[in-house]
Design brief:
heterodimer; A: 505 residues; Spermidine Synthase, Chain: A, domain 2; Rossmann fold; 3 domains; seven-stranded mixed sheet; four-stranded antiparallel sheet; 53% helix; B: 519 residues; alpha/beta; Polyamine Oxidase, Chain A, domain 2; FAD/NAD(P)-binding domain; 23 strands
């Protein structure tokens, strides 16, 4: 029986698998490290050169070529198949991620580089050299085409990176097992040894494939539509970053903090009205929360700013820009700016215990008050502590959740600010990822609503959108019923918030 | 074997029994003749015996009136009695009493203390106190652990039947009725201080029942309501439901509610509990305070009263005009010469109960086991436990992450001879009681707890058992006897900061006027 045509089918599969691993590594590294041009360029370069190394090494394999071929296939199955899950798992936990990434790409490249020369040597007795070269190489390139079409159209959207990686690992192992029959007469060892090895590898990959969601957590894969590229539990919260069609998104304890596609709307609306409301040139800025550095990016646009003090609870959050270059790119490397200093502390305790020169502007950007530990950051006590850290003319802005979804919560925050003597100008804007979003602009004396955005580079705010933010449609206006002021000893806001958001769970 | 290895791998914290000099007090019972060298005598107008809240309040009142010819003698190395506290990181922690309900506006003397401590921001239109937000117990105040889960509040609503609901509502109604009740003179049935409560037979007759009897007589059979009332008794009095006078039980629920339909008065609290008050009072009077002074003899005579105390193995004497006796009342016959010959009151009627308090120093706080578990609160109560649960010291400072200190309270009311047993237990045995109890809610407590110190309170609180509060003995003991003015929370029959303060200030007022008249 002539088994040659079937061996050519192997070439297509091998070629497809090889390119898939390369694409996986490129995609994964550009997800987690950002800068896709650099990442793809590096991965392709390393991968192709490693294939060259593999091809060159093939000359040292002299005996038992068929057996070596099957071993190489099994090795590719293991390393390539587990590559994506392994890289994801290590990314969140090691600082030398790139070394692991490039080593893995190099290893896969070497093994894939060995495959075709070995296969050609197996086939050389069946065909003349001219036909052999033309067929093998032609099929190799067909395989590449199949892979490059399947990968973006079907594999990434339907299976995700982890399962794609595991699936092609299984295909590689399948090729190895199949080859034990095709090349049975060339094998010296008992072919069953290879079959058992292959079966074990397929089984392991299959288990990983089925349990792929556990690589993050069972709940997370269901929760997040997009690929999780970073997941880490700090002492304070679960930090997850996903990458999808619309861009990067950050989740804290499962709650969306920003999506890169529209975060500029949120952050421009958060930062610039306070600057517009300040009379003169603000020099000292306080940021409470905002560990993603995106508010910093907006603040640092002002030349007058001399000092920015950022206070965020979680060092894992303020350090995220280091771990995730894509985020540093998004916040314009704001944490590297010498004007910025970071304190990792609970803002409530920090305000209570820190003696510091007063600030001209305070940007208060905490997660929504969905628990008591966060609720205290919206109390009269908290705002009284904040007042002690402000210059007399200081402007304050507070992110206040959605006045549409959580109307009572929103107005409770406004009333709480008023209760400690702030004059408050409520405003809202649309952030598609969040919905309609509310803020409160406050000063310690009466002031006019600013009418013009400051003269800095802006993507969202202009004169007309700026003014319209301070207008409230009927369904978001202050409710008629009495709204409670949020105090440490009643935590009224947490109860409002829970009732209002629960309706949407 | 498996069990052994698990047990062996479990980390057990370090710690000690701290505080109270147990043996010291008992010296009194054995010795009777104390010869003080003549050069060791000193003349002073007033001596205050006992540096708990009552004694400190008396001293505070004297100093406030610029009367400084007095000395306060405290047995222990530390001042403050059961309101004592410890210092530490991240915050201090209590060794006993840990909160004060905001006083009614009528309690002027106590309010002047709060004013002096800058705790008060002002008065509202009705004249009620506005206490600084940071001093009022922060929400969430309480949670209760029941069958593996934490629930909000102290009364367990989860899983209650229709009948439970009806009984609870009916119970509230009865409480409301007592809150609104006034006697012919317009006095409330239950109010702080006890001295201002009505002595009308309608109310005082409640003292002849146990609180358990009262519940049954009123048709309250709900198990969770009984638990709630039992918890209240253990918490405030160190007694079980059946050991507590119904008058005292109702006092707990009624005395801090202004009128029906309004919330109970909010709590003023600090990480170190009532240690904050103790430290403030002490700061005002410290020049007149002498610690580690065991008063061994109080001898009334024609000129006044001679006090002898033992310190550093040396006897020292004070010729005084007046004594403010601010020690537990049961000690009176042991130190006051001639007390038993002409007993002004039956000192053995004043019975106390025993407690132990443990402070658990944690490197991190326990994590919730279920997403729906109610989060760590100020007061964390275990439903199925003889203890009172624990209080979280960092709560009031808004510190919600990282190391904290939990204060665990255990009244010995479930055992016969609780006091004797308490002092027979070793540190390891008491620590085991505490940790196994807390571990039911927080199995990781062994890993979290680096240190566990225990204070044993042999005579922690006066016991308001039936037929004590209104038997007449308190009234007798409140009268001065041979220039000795009694001033202790025991005289109220209820161990509360406000009561101790009241008696301290009252006795100071009595001695100040009489002592100064002579000079």
């Amino acid at each position: 029986m002539n088994r040659t045509p079937l061996l050519f089918l192997n070439v297509i599969i091998i070629a497809t698998c090889g390119l898939i691993y390369e694409l996986l590594a490129g995609t994964l590294s550009s997800y987690v490290l950002g800068d896709s041009v650099t990442q793809f360029s590096f991965i392709i370069g390393i991968y192709l050169s490693a294939m060259g190394v593999g091809s060159w090494l093939s000359k040292y394999i002299e005996k038992n070529i068929a057996e070596k071929f099957i071993d190489v296939e099994l090795a590719v199955a293991v390393i390539g198949g587990f590559s994506a899950p392994l890289l994801f798992l290590t990314f969140a936990h090691v600082s030398y991620f790139q070394i692991i990434l490039y080593t893995m790409v190099f290893l896969i490249g070497v093994l894939v580089g060995l495959e075709i020369p070995l296969l050609m040597r197996i086939l050389k007795d069946e065909l003349d050299f001219k036909t052999l070269v033309s067929r093998v190489l032609a099929l190799d390139y067909v395989g590449a085409l199949v892979a490059s079409l399947l990968f973006p159209i079907f594999l990434v959207p339907k299976l995700g990176l982890n399962r794609t990686s595991l699936l092609f690992g299984m295909l590689n192992a399948g090729v190895a097992v199949w080859a034990t029959w095709l090349l049975e007469n060339r094998l010296k060892k008992n072919p069953n040894v290879f079959r058992i090895k292959g079966a074990v590898i397929i089984l392991l990959l299959l288990i990983a494939f089925i349990k792929a969601d556990r690589l993050t957590t069972l709940a997370e894969d269901a929760l997040f539509v997009d690929n999780i590229i970073y997941a880490k539990s700090s002492s304070y919260q679960r930090i997850v970053v996903t990458k999808g069609k619309t861009g990067y998104a950050l989740f804290l304890n499962g709650n969306l903090q920003f999506n890169s596609f529209d975060e500029y709307r949120y952050h421009e609306a958060l930062v610039h009205p306070a600057f517009a409301a300040y009379n003169g040139e603000p020099k000292r800025i306080l940021v409470l929360g905002g560990g993603d550095g995106l508010a910093l990016r907006e603040i640092l646009k002002y030349k007058s700013v001399e000092t920015v003090q950022l206070v965020d609870l979680d060092p894992a959050m303020t350090g995220l820009s280091k771990a995730l270059p894509a985020l540093a790119e998004l916040n314009h490397h704001s944490f590297d700016d010498p004007r910025v200093s970071v304190a990792n502390a609970d803002a409530f305790v920090w305000l209570d215990n820190t003696a510091i020169e007063p600030f001209d502007i305070a940007i208060v950007d905490f997660p929504d008050p969905n628990n008591f530990a966060l609720g205290k950051l919206y109390t009269t006590r908290f705002y009284n502590l904040l007042k002690q850290k402000l210059t007399p003319d200081a402007a304050v802005v507070v992110q206040c959740t959605s006045p549409l979804i959580a109307r009572n919560s929103y107005w409770s925050i406004v009333k709480t600010l008023e209760a400690v003597g702030f004059t408050v100008k409520p405003y809202q804007t649309t952030v598609p990822s969040f919905g309609l979003w509310g803020y409160a602009l406050a000063k310690q004396q009466a002031f006019e609503i600013p009418t013009q955005p400051p003269n800095v580079e802006l993507k969202f705010l202009n004169v007309s959108s700026f003014a319209s933010m301070f207008e409230f449609p009927t369904d978001m206006k202050m409710p008629d019923e009495e709204i409670e002021i949020n105090r440490l000893d009643n935590q009224a806001l947490v109860r409002y918030y829970e009732t209002e958001w629960r309706r949407f769970e | 074997m498996a069990a052994c290895s698990i047990g062996a791998s479990k980390k057990f914290p370090d710690g000690n029994i701290v505080g109270q000099s147990v043996g010291l007090g008992h010296v009194l019972r054995d010795q009777s003749n104390f010869e003080v060298p003549s050069d060791k005598w000193q003349t002073i107008k007033v001596a205050i015996v006992g540096g708990g809240v009552a004694g400190l309040s008396a001293a505070w009142k004297l100093s406030k009136n610029n009367f400084n010819d007095y000395v306060l003698l405290e047995l222990e190395k530390e001042i403050g009695g059961t309101s004592r506290s410890g210092t530490g990181t991240p915050v201090g922690y209590p060794w006993g009493a840990h909160y004060l309900p905001v006083p009614f506006q009528e309690n002027g003397e106590l309010i002047s203390l709060l004013d002096e401590m800058s705790l008060v921001e002002g008065r509202n239109a009705n004249g009620d106190l506005i206490v600084g937000e940071q001093y009022l117990c922060r929400e969430p105040e309480e949670r209760v652990f029941y069958k593996g889960r934490w629930y909000e509040g102290l009364y367990l609503h989860a899983g209650e039947s229709e009948d439970d609901k009806r009984q609870f509502a009916e119970f509230q109604k009865q409480i409301d009725a007592w809150v609104n009740w006034r006697d012919a003179k317009g006095r409330r049935a239950f109010v702080v201080p006890v001295a201002n409560c009505s002595n009308d037979e309608t109310v005082t007759s409640l003292d002849r029942l146990s609180f358990g009897d009262w519940l049954r007589q009123n048709g309250f059979t709900s198990e969770r309501l009984s638990w709630y009332c039992d918890y209240a008794c253990r918490d405030d009095y160190g007694l079980k439901l059946e050991q507590t006078s119904a008058w005292a039980g109702l006092f707990y629920f009624c005395s801090r509610v202004r009128r029906s339909g309004v919330e109970s008065q909010p709590f003023i609290t600090f990480p170190e509990g009532n240690g904050r008050f103790v430290n403030h009072l002490f700061d005002r009077v410290k020049n007149n305070v002498r610690k580690s002074q065991m008063v061994v003899s109080i001898a009334p005579n024609k000129k006044g009263v001679d006090v002898i105390c033992l310190a550093d193995d040396q006897l020292r004497g004070f010729h005084c005009e007046k004594i403010i006796f601010a020690s537990p009342m049961f000690t009176a016959p042991y130190v006051i010469r001639g007390f038993n010959d002409d007993a002004p009151f039956a000192a053995n009627e004043f019975q106390h109960n025993a407690w132990f308090v443990a402070n658990l120093f944690l490197n991190d706080r326990p994590k919730p086991r279920f997403a729906r578990d109610f989060p760590l609160a100020w007061d964390n109560v275990l439903y199925e436990s003889p203890s009172l649960g624990y209080v979280n010291a960092t709560h009031q400072k808004g510190i919600d992450y990282g190391p904290t200190t939990l204060t665990y309270y255990y009244p010995m009311c479930h055992e016969e001879e609780g006091r004797t047993k308490l002092f027979n237990y070793t540190w390891r045995e008491l620590a085991d009681v505490c940790l196994t109890d807390v571990a039911r809610a927080h199995p990781e407590i062994y890993d979290l707890c680096d240190r566990l110190d225990i204070m044993r309170w042999g005579h922690a609180m006066i016991s308001p058992r039936p037929n004590f509060l209104w038997s007449g003995v308190r009234e007798k003991a409140m009268l001065p006897w041979r220039n000795i003015h009694f001033a202790h929370t025991d005289l109220s029959g209820i161990a509360l900061f406000e009561e101790a303060f009241y008696h301290g200030v009252r006795a100071a007022g009595e001695t100040y006027t009489s002592a100064s008249k002579r000079s």
